[in-house]
Amino acid sequence: MKILGFFGKGGTGKTTLTALILRELARRGDGGILAVDADANECLASLLGSGGTSNVSEMLQRYKRQREESPELTGLDIFQNLFDSLLMEGEQEGYDMLIMGRGEGSGCFCAINDLLQAVFEKTIEGDRYGYLLMDCEAGVEHIARKTSGEIHDAIIVTDASKVSLDTLRRIKDVAREVGTRIERYYVVANKTRPDMLEKVEKTAKDLGFKYLGAIPEDPNFTEVAYQGKTVFDLPDDSPAVVAAKQIVDRLLEG
Ligand SMILES: Nc1ncnc2c1ncn2[C@@H]1O[C@H](COP(=O)(O)OP(=O)(O)OP(=O)(O)O)[C@@H](O)[C@H]1O
Ligand SMILES: [Mg+2]
């Protein structure tokens, strides 16, 4: 199983790239896909057309209630049932969706992080999924909180700005500091002027990251956003869709 986490500075295109890669993997159909929306804003779910399905935060509240109401059941049984129902609710277009939600309210994310870990471990054990795609919050927060514990591959989305490229190094540094076991780092340029791509590629190579290519500015996204449509509504020859195919080819090369 391939577990991919999407990282990068705010607004660079993490959610967009997660959705584009999911669309391409679903089209190829060579393994079940679990999409995890780990950003509290739940943008990935909307872009995939899975908005409104219930999330892990709500599940946690239900779990707490059911534990009080049914003391005869073990915590694990309750968790298992709730988790399975959560996954099935999100099923459509050849993938399952898991929405993390906002945490439990102010401050503490410990319980939801524990659940996230449990979800990962459970998912890795079975052969239900060939891919797990996790759309993370901007910056390095996710790695710092260790919620990305089981991610094998980090895909960092960037443009050619200094701030965005500086994030590449910081993500690697923070991952090392907190002992995250990320094995491979990939870089994808998004919405970047062609004459600036060389800088992105060089920065990636200098850090030992594999450069996967670039997604061009695609006017069809404006239409998708305006009409509240999904990534599956983009035409097959849309520039971003075509570029995503090549990126998936390079990603699966290793
Ligand atoms: N290749 C592209 N062509 C056109 N528009 C794009 C492209 N990539 C992203 N966008 C647009 O840029 C905006 C930001 O993209 P996106 O939400 O994917 O970024 P993000 O990194 O996930 O942001 P955040 O840090 O807020 O989670 C969106 O409106 C999206 O539609
Ligand atoms: Mg996003």
UniProtKB/TrEMBL annotation:
Pfam family, one: CbiA
Domain CobQ/CobB/MinD/ParA nucleotide binding: 8-231
Organism whose genome encodes this protein: Candidatus Methanocrinis natronophilus
Transmembrane segments: none
Name of protein: CobQ/CobB/MinD/ParA nucleotide binding domain-containing protein
Top-level division of the source organism's lineage: Archaea
InterPro entries: CobQ/CobB/MinD/ParA_Nub-bd_dom, CooC, P-loop_NTPase, ParA/MinD_ATPase
